[in-house]
Structures are given as structure tokens and as C-alpha cells.
Specification:
It is built from 13 helices and 14 strands. Strands 2-10-9-8-5-3-4 form a seven-stranded mixed beta sheet, with helices on both faces. The protein has a three-stranded antiparallel beta sheet with strand order 11-14-13, with helices on one face. The protein is 42% helix and 15% strand. It folds into two domains: 124 residues, Aspartate Aminotransferase, domain 1 (Alpha-Beta Complex); 243 residues, Type I PLP-dependent aspartate aminotransferase-like (Major domain) (Aspartate Aminotransferase, domain 2). Strand 13 and strand 14 form a beta hairpin.
Amino acid sequence: MIKKRLYTPGPTPVPEQIMLMMAEPMIHHRHPEFQEILTSVNENLKYLFQTSNGVMTLTSSGTGAMEASVANVLSKGDTAVYVNGGKFGERWGEILNAYVLNAVEIAMEWGTPVSPEQVVDTVKNNPETKAVYLTHSETSTGTATDIKAIAQAVHKHNNDIAVIVDGITSVGAMESKMDEWDLDIVVTGSQKGLMIPPGLAHIAVSERAWKLIEKSDLPAYYFDLKAAKKALDKNDTPWTPAVTLFIGLEKALKMLREEGIENVWARHRKLADAIREGCKALGLKLLSSSPSNALTAVYVPEGVEFKKFNSVIKQKYGITVAGGQGHLKGKIFRISHLGYYDELDMMTMMAALERTLVEVGANIKIGAGLTAAQEVFTK
């Protein structure tokens, strides 16, 4: 018997108690019992995002919220700056171009974060810029970007520019304070730090961004944020929501609130440190120079084929990790520590990693990774 264990940065494991709640009989989304769930969800989302503004929930993947933050904020012919440091930064550009906007790219080497100076210099060279699109935790490379410093620098240069953040693998895992950091839009998805299955996207919007939304002339229907806000103000949803996911979300948000958001961030930081130290002790090379606490991207050892490595760790040890994307396909693997994980989960991952590497012929010292991870947890 092999127990299956998921270590991908989305979907992430779903707590058993949440799965049981979602298996209960269906309820109707326009009845009072669902309105009670909405009340709880909407209040706890504000806590999660660290904002006093309402947080809208869309029935879609996180990409739906990304598209909504383009289609509702900008107008025809507008200029927006975006950072492309990985597959999901690249997605910002694809969405901007889909709406035939003037998309100005800041291209970064994958695994290297953009600096505030680079962003501001680009904005200065494009004075008509209406918004800057960033990725807090670039899932394809495991790289964290200092969105706090960038937002501060951008608004110091021009306080009217909206700073819009893909927080899909950072919200609920890494320190993120929307109001305090003066962020204008932050989006996330349900299958990441929120610990429920895919299908919901969440989008928090500042007053600065709402001013742009009111002027936007781009087409939007299902992802119309004005319609979503109107429904939110009535404790409702504009369209039929994913009812079962909302039921799970209510429980997940309560769990995160009971743990305390600062403790959630600290837990993820320690889990990430353990995985990184364990990998380094095995002589493995990390991809990112600014690693995210949501996941760790690791180069496949020289002489080892990723397909063989992935087959052994999955088929023999039941562990599912993520592979590389784009030009990194076959060159890296990505270990998630995002969402419903604890210290022993990381020890299990490290043990399976060591045994797999030995089996595929990598030259490592068995136990070195486990020891290094244990040292992180026992400090």
C-alpha cells in the first residue's frame, strides 16, 4: 500500500474536516443559510487580505481574477507595465495583450526578482502608465518579489498609478498587508493557501483602483467588478456561485483565523526554511535568488533525468511534486509547502526525496537532508 501525498503549489491538500463539510447535502445560494456563510466568508477574507475593503469572490480559477483586474481597471489604449519573471508574470502580459492594451514588459531572468528601481525607471520612461502588474510569489520559479517596496516607490513617483498584485501563491502563506502596503488590487485562488479545491478566485480592490474601474471602457460581463461589488454590498453574488466551495471556504478561513495570520506566515517560513536547508545539505541547487515561502524550486541533479526521478518519487513513494515550466521543463522540480502542511509533512517529503535520489543514481549522503531539516525545526 502506498499513501498518496500531494506537494504541488496548487492544488494543495484539503483538510479532512473541510472535505467532510463539502460532502454534506447541497443548499440553495439565495437562501438565508447561504447568506450566513457569505457573511462569515466576506468578513474573514478581509482579515486574510489585511484590508478594510470588501473582497469579491468569483467562481473561476485565479486567472479569472487576473483578467478581471485588467478588464475592469484599464481603458482602450491605456499603458500598463508588467514584470515577466516566470510563467505567471508572462500571463499578465498575455492578458494585457488580449485586451489590445499597450503592455510594457520588464523581462527578468527566471528566478531573479525585479527591483523597485527597475519598475520606477520603466514607469518614468512610460509616463502614461496607468497600472503596474506584479507577481508576489512566482509559482513557476519559487521566487518572491518585494511588492511592499515596489508599491511604495511607484506611489512616491506617481500616486495615481495602480499597483496590482498576483498573490495567488502568496496570500495565506507569505506576509501580505494590502492596506498597510498601499496595494491597489490583490488576487488569489482557492486551491493554494486557502486549502480548498480549485474553483474560486478572490479579488480585493482599493479606493484608488475603484476610481479607475469607474472610468474603464473595456468589455466585461461575467467578470464585471461593478456587478460583483453591487452584489457584495448586499451580501450576495451576481451569478450562481460554487456553493460547495463556499462551504469549504468558510471552514478554511476560520481555521486560518484561529491560527492567526502572523502564525500562518511564520509556519510557512519555517517549513520553507526546512526544505531549503534540507535540499542544500544534499548538495542540490536552488533556482531562486529570492525564494518564496510558498514553494521551493530545485534543480534536478546533474546526470539525473527528471522523468525517471518523477516516476520513482510518484510511483514508489506516492509523492507528487511539480515539474518545471517553459524552458525549465525537465530541469527543475518544485516542492510545495503552501497551505495544509506541518513539520512532519516536510520530513516525509525530505525522506522520500533522499530515497528517490539514491535510487536514480544521485551522489548524496542519505540522512543529510533530514538532519538539516530537523535542525530548522528544533531551533
